[in-house]
Amino acid sequence: MTDKNELAQIGVVGLAVMGSNLARNFARNGNTVAVYNRSPEKTHALIEAHGEEGNFVPSETIEDFVASLERPRKAIIMVKAGKATDAVIDQLAEAMDDGDIIIDGGNALFTDTIRREKDVAARGKHFVGAGISGGEEGALNGPAIMPGGPKESWETLGPILESIAANVDGTPCVTHIGADGAGHFVKMVHNGIEYADMQVIGEAYQLLRYGAGMEPAEIAEVFHEWNSGDLDSYLIEITAEVLAQKDPETGAPLVDIIVDAAGQKGTGRWTAINGLELGVPITGIAESVFARALSSSTAQRSAAQEGQLPAGTIKALDVDKAEFIEDVRRALYAAKLIAYSQGFDEIKAGSEEFGWDVDPRDLATIWRGGCIIRAKFLDRIRAAYDNNADLPALILDPYFKGELEDLIDPWRRVVVAATQLGLPAPVFASSLSYYDSLRAERLPAALIQGQRDFFGAHTFKRTDKPGTFHIEWSGDRSLTQTD
Ligand code: NBP
């Protein structure tokens, strides 16, 4: 139903896949929605196909669109991230009044959101960068929403966003994350964790396929079973579906027909870059981004496959299939746990750096539904931060420590098996090294400090007394205290 005279509670600019589904979600949940797209064909198509789902107010100019919104006006931008978003923000800020709210629901880089919030605030309007997860299906049926921006805007926006968000046990999967870029920051890290989660699932598949010699359909059954335990999650569920799928043209397992070069749109890369900038070891996420990059290094891979690189002569392990499957399940759980622990570390560091005061319990709550990394074990993460809001690392929570008691030996066995079988398992292996580095009483960093002092007089600290020291490496090798 459309009514040009009715004022809309919310507007959506940009009616491609995400915007049109989000607009339908608003309308289906009883909101009157103003809709506008640069090319009017998409607006017409939406109204024609779905106009009966609720109250839509379509416009063909941005001015008419703004005029069709009730005050304070609230408009969500769902256009291509980057320059298009800046162009639409400028048009809306020009046409809107003081106190109106512009929301960017695209996948913006959080530093762009910080800049935009400043610019828009200087023009008297509010700007909210909101991370939206769940893809096309989530946008229509209930996404997880991570809005940043001023707290004041959340007071106005909260109820309307709650009306369309996913809902778990009566709790909507949306809450105010923090000021300016906080929402897009946590959405970025969410996507980084998603990369790692997908990669560890991929590594488990690879080991079962080429280590235990199982066929995709059989592995699909294994994943299906895993989905009823600790690993219960959307990504495990869809993995079982993908592995069970046959290619409609050839009848072969679809996974064998798909080119093994993984794409990426950049949020995983941003998460890894930000981890490096903040000095947070997000090894699982970074390895996952590199694994996708390596998979797409087609020329190098074919050169290496043509027998150029020796496989070595170490004999592969004989693995007992049933035991190996269970070991792989536990290794997957452990590596996934590390990825989440590291992601939450990055959020904590970002929150401190930018003064956002992000509550990790909020994220563990709203990520339980709607988003791609939704998983049963987020309830455990929530409980961990409920018990101790200042946990030094998620894996140090007593529950997860207990889980790791059961996971550590299988995890080590799987990394050994992968190495002996010559199968790549970059996140399984690097997560284990991260874990052992955290546990280690002494790290080779002491030697690195010695090397740095040798070639660059970078000085070092001593374990036995305070102060900063240097050895006269090119002289008599005496010790001097520099402060
Ligand atoms: P796209 O990212 O494909 O963008 C297409 C939309 O941008 C169209 O409405 C297009 O209008 C509009 N647009 C462009 Br391009 N340049 C414009 C300009 N200069 N002025 C005004 N409008 C312009 O759409 P999408 O896949 O629906 O994604 C929308 C946002 O949501 C993106 O930021 C994306 O990163 C984010 N996101 C996507 C997903 C997903 O699963 N796809 C998930 C989560 C977030 P036109 O019709 O006139 O060309």
The value of Rg in angstroms is: 26 Å
Mean pLDDT comes to 96
Structural class: alpha/beta
The main sheet orders its strands as 3-2-1-4-5-6-7
Strand content: 5-15%
Low-confidence stretches: none
Amino- and carboxy-terminal Cα gap: 76 Å
Secondary structure tally, helices: 20
Tell me, what's the shape?
Answer: globular
Describe the overall structure.
This protein is 55% helix and 8% strand. The protein is built from 20 helices and 11 strands. It has helices at residues 17-28, 40-50, 62-67, 83-95, 110-122, 135-141, 151-164, 182-210, 216-226, 234-244, 254-257, 267-278, 283-295, 298-308, 321-354, 360-366, 378-387, 398-421, 426-439, 445-456, and strands at 10-13, 33-36, 56-58, 74-77, 101-104, 126-133, 144-147, 167-168, 171-172, 469-471, 479-481. The chain has a 7-stranded mixed β-sheet with strand order 3-2-1-4-5-6-7, with helices on both faces. Helix 1 runs parallel beside helix 6 (135-141) and helix 15 (321-354) packs across helix 18 (398-421). The mean pLDDT is 96. It binds nicotinamide 8-bromo-adenine dinucleotide phosphate (NBP).
